Amino acid sequence: MHINPDHYLSTAQGRVFTKERNIQAWQCCFDAFKHVLKTNLKVKVIYILIGCQGAGKSTWAKNQISREPENIIFDAILVKQSERLPIIEQAK
Fold first, then answer.
1. Are the beta carbons of 22 and 5 closer than 8 angstroms?
2. In this structure, are residues 46 and 63 in contact, taking their beta carbons and an 8 Å threshold?
3. From its phi and psi, is residue 89 left (phi > 0), alpha (psi between -120 and 50) or beta?
4. Exposed, middle or buried, 75 (CB in 10 Å: 0-12/13-18/19+)?
5. For residue 32, which of 3, 66, 62, 68 has the smallest C-alpha distance?
6. What pLDDT is attached to residue 16?
7. Distance in angstroms (rounded) separating the CA atoms of residues 87 and 43
8. d(CA 90, CA 92)
9. pTM above the 0.90 mark?
10. Any residues with CB less than 8 A from the CB of 33 and at least 6 apart, and which?
């Protein structure tokens, strides 16, 4: 599963970003992450991608998920440890 907040910000008119939509997008990501952890017993690897926008994280994620569809890729900037911590804690 490829989890990315940008997926939840996309609309027919393109990506729409507001503070409220951003909060909602992140909540959707965490909800999806929790759901797949509970329901997909085949998950062996959780990738947490870290890096600036445009660095190629999403391209790498798309290629990787085609080879490892059972695993999870959490794809966002995530440069601060405090941003990654909820993902790591949930994965434990």
1. yes
2. no
3. alpha
4. buried
5. 3
6. 80
7. 15
8. 5
9. no
10. 3, 72, 74, 87, 90
Q: Around Cβ 35, how many Cβ atoms within 10 Å?
A: 11
Reported confidence tier of residue 79, pLDDT bands at 50, 70, 90: confident
Backbone angles phi, psi at 13, to 5 degrees: -90, 5
Helix (H) or strand (E) holding 74: strand 72-75
Q: Which of 18, 30, 21, 28 is nearest to 85 (CA)?
A: 30
Q: Which residue has the tokens 């990787």?
A: 64
Query: Rounded to an integer, what distance in angstroms lies between the CA atom of residue 70 and that of residue 21?
Result: 28
